[in-house]
Input
Amino acid sequence: GAVVSQHPSRVICKSGTSVKIECRSLDFQATTMFWYRQFPKQSLMLMATSNEGSKATYEQGVEKDKFLINHASLTLSTLTVTSAHPEDSSFYICSARTGFEMNTEAFFGQGTRLTVV
Amino acid sequence: GQQLNQSPQSMFIQEGEDVSMNCTSSSIFNTWLWYKQEPGEGPVLLIALYKAGELTSNGRLTAQFGITRKDSFLNISASIPSDVGIYFCAGQSGQGSRLTFGEGTQLTVNP
Output
């Protein structure tokens, strides 16, 4: 399958600082990328959907000013957690899809473990 | 909104046993996907199903897209220790739409 690379895999930051997480599609162009958040022993919760060149669509309850998403190219999307607080500590996962057609699959990155201290 | 009910929540089995898990939905999906997630990693796609009634295999894994389009099951035959992980079903209702995930099934295989 296609490869999606997420960086960093782990990050620890101080409360009040901002953290940027990158999601890259290595061998395909991703028209759509998704950002998820996952708490321990829970399922993936969709935070936002980003299409290249346009503004991200955020899910209800997700603060767009706190979780800034940029999808500037067909191979890169970034999620910036601004003014991070301990409650933002979580596992963040991106996925990328090649197109809008029904049978285009979404491939996931390896995830980023964020710990805010 | 759409919800997927995945069961069982967890399974503890002996190596060599067969495993079955399923997902049901109150609404129709046009695509069903099954993923496996290991600790500290992102989900990895196991099987994708695109047509109602479709039965697809991937090695020891077999999944079916329910005829009503509201359910799907995943079977793992002759389980081995490396099958340990969390298995998620996911449904997609329309072209280019988001995935809705089940709650996951935690599988433990005892050697």
